[in-house]
Amino acid sequence: MGNFRLLAVGIGGVLGMVGLLNAMAFAQAPDDDINPPVANCNQIPDTNAGDKPPPGKFVATPINAELLTSGQPCQQKVSTSGLADNDTSDKKDEGNAKMANLQRGFDFYSWLTFIAMNSPADGKVIGKGPLPGGDAPTKWEALQNYRPLANVMLANGDKPEWGTRIVPDECKKLDGPGKIVFQLGEEAFNQPFKSGPLIDQDGQFALFDILMNRPMFDYIVKHDLYSKAGQEKVDETDNAKFPLGRLEFPIGSNPSGTAPGRMGAIMLKVSYRILDPQKDKALLSQFHTSDALIYFPGPPATKTGPVCVEKKLGLIGFHVGHKTNFAPQWVWTSFEHVSNVPDAEDVASGHLLPRYNFFNAACKKDCPAVNDVPPQPWDPGETLKFHGNYRSQVIRKKMVPGFILKEVADLNKSFRGTLKGTVWENYMLLATQWPSDHASKTDPLGAPAPTYLANSTLETYSQGRIPLASSSCMACHGNATTHHVPATASDFTFILEKAQ
Amino acid sequence: MTDLTRRNILTGAAVTAAGAVASTNLVTPAAAATPAPAAPSTANAKPPAPAAATPAPFPELDPKELQLFVTLSSGLTGISPAKLAPTVDPIQIKRDYFNAAKFIEKPSRTPNPNFPKLMDIMRAETDPVVAAAKVMNNPDPAIMYLGRSIILAWYLGVWYDPDLLKRYTAPNQPRPVPVDRVISPAAYTQGWTWRVAQAHPMGYSELRYGYWAQDAQPLSDYIA
After folding, report:
1. Is any Cβ of chain A less than 8 angstroms from the Cβ of B87?
2. Which of A228, B76, B79, B109 is the most buried (most CB within 10 A)?
3. What is the ipTM, given to two decimal places?
4. pTM of the model
């Protein structure tokens, strides 16, 4: 049991089963020492489905300022019952309604996660910071909460330490309070499967970074996964270390009975565009920004370097993977900036914004091919300016079913309204991908819902609805492996492949 | 009466599907008999033919009729409705097959007049196996072969025109290999023939790295 499909058929709701299944999950948890109790898991559901109202009486949880300080969910709180059950007409599709209710629950969880992770690191309320647009350094940028990949997979397979801020020598002269250190490697400018870089309308490279929270970091350290040599020695048949016979990052769970809540492993991939503090001054209140020391370590990681440059970065994409109860395939949240690219429908209808980060609405002739990769070479020099006059011309393809698009649009409108006047009103959820059949014995991907999902800045070149070729968080990450020989599954993360 | 049982249907469908799999790898007789055209000279090149018009979108479907289709499909394929169309179903392949059966694609998308008759048979029955038997032994070959096309759709993800299937099985006649059409990109990955074989289609698998070195899950995990 513990399967959304089975619950949908046999029980009619997930909420009622959470306690029992939580207990089962806790009984198996071998890594509680690195997945500590969390006192304030955000357990607000998206509706009153837990009260079991009759059809027509489901009410949405108000989306208001109270949610801005409600904390981070330790796991999703979802139900097969919900707002879609208010449709009592003959035209109601029961299956679609259950899926719509679950999807909305996951999307609500994603917004709560986004707000909590992007709240100021100093504990203040999101949007109330001292920078333009109420911006402030966020929780995920604070090194006590998250570590970038470059601080985990160290040269020579050295053992990383949680508390150490690593500043390369070349960056020390530029360093100062509040600055983040961003080390470039190919994954910082080239999209998954080396499919190409993304170039903004100023001709600059978009940049990508990967971070992880402490339970994930500690699991990597505890099991010697930070080096190739350590991964090669992993023995998954060692029941004491790997009770499930495989790598299994810590699981996020809500409190249940006497068992406390735990956050579980979270990994984060962010994308940035480079902003010029003077030329783009008017844009600064529209983006979450970071002052970054961008370090080019030199060959083989980057063609240029070692050298360090300082840039102001604007957040354009925010992609979270969270391992939780009922989601061993992780829950995948994808946000992006509203002015990144237009939807295909926007282009067709002519309803376009005055400017986009990766689309030129004014281009009428000899425009770059839509969603095409830039011409080679792709390695950035220290200016981070792409060669020639190339600018990406990107359009967001429709990848998720219409009912999800509508639900997400409604949710975005409400949450963005609550964040109005802050930089955060400029971000939108694309959707959440979750396993609809997480316990399937024949589909280890757990039948991802929706089947496809792409962020226009992180999976630009794999948009679509073609099996295997088009972007699906779980289908892609399900292929990730370790350096063990023979290779073994790495529990849906490519982070381990970066070990040295 | 009939000796058609769920088990027989499953076995028969698997055999039918296996035959049809072979057919998908063959060149159609018409194509095989026609010599390859000589490359046109540039001087005589004609302007390219206009692209085929995009067919009108499928109309909004009736959830009750869709459910009826799934129930009948269960009888036809021998696979439970919950497996064919899970209640929480992100793939929704049933919609692709429903539309393939309900509409004739060429020359232009039009309703298949036999589809309502098929639905009427299911509506009149409570047991999908009995309804399936009535379809597969129907005196009207248009109904019988539409039922067969639906079985093939579920097992192979491919649509075979019922009329062509009928000609293919006609005794003492030339047997033109029916033209097939993969119903959708999703349908390519969803054919039940792969699950019955505890396998996966070429180029696509949900299984994790290294699965090829391990035993497949028991058949019951796939189809029960």
Report:
1. yes
2. B76
3. 0.87
4. 0.89
